[in-house]
Input
Amino acid sequence: MCGEKQPHHHDLTLGHFFHGLFHELAHVDSKVFRTLRDLVLRPGELTAAYFAGRKTRYIAPLRLFLTLFALQFLAYTVYKPVAIYSMDGLLRVDSTHRFETLLHRTAAKRHIDYAEMVEKIEHRWQKNMSMLNLAAIAGLAVWLKVLYARRRRFLGEHLVFSAHYLSFSYIVTLAIWPVYLVIGIARDRSHFVLLAVTSLLLCGYLYLAMRRFYQQGPARSAIKAVLAFAGMYVVNVVIMVCSLLGAVFLTLGV
Output
């Protein structure tokens, strides 16, 4: 075509092909490395850079969020001993066994095989969770909009910030996955200690990210970080409960 450079015979050689392939892979790898490095080591930097016009340096917020969510969802679903998004994992942490008893009674009442019923509920629950994962971004963003109502920030700014923060939280959950392989997932002391340490890490990161992006003083940022973290916890619980209840109702036809 007019104006385009015609390929030279050198461009068609095998060496040139691999040189171009290496260049493309190196470019992708550098963007991935830069994104993960700044996401972990420089809280709030990705969001600030995004709205400063430096978007091309990093992976897009939504793509980053979806990729990391898929990885942590897979990690905590496939291997049953450390599965969270599974009925086995849910019933294992239910020390009262009330939910399991209710499922047994429902299966007997409806003359349904218990194992088959649980498998169907689990499948629908995991499907619902994968479909509702974007609600976590929206829920946290709306809560941030309330917390920063006086700053007149656009909802889009909170959405990007939420995507980056939740992406970091998924990195943390992936990082502690090997620990759960050793100690298991149960309501014991080690589990609560790990949960406390993880919560402090996530809340501390949130404080630093909010200070960098929203540029408020230490005291206000600390208070809002605690409130935002509590709001995020509520949003995640609501999403998990709604997705599970939806799976139960759809499976049993309630």
Remarks:
- The first helix runs from residue 14 to 41.
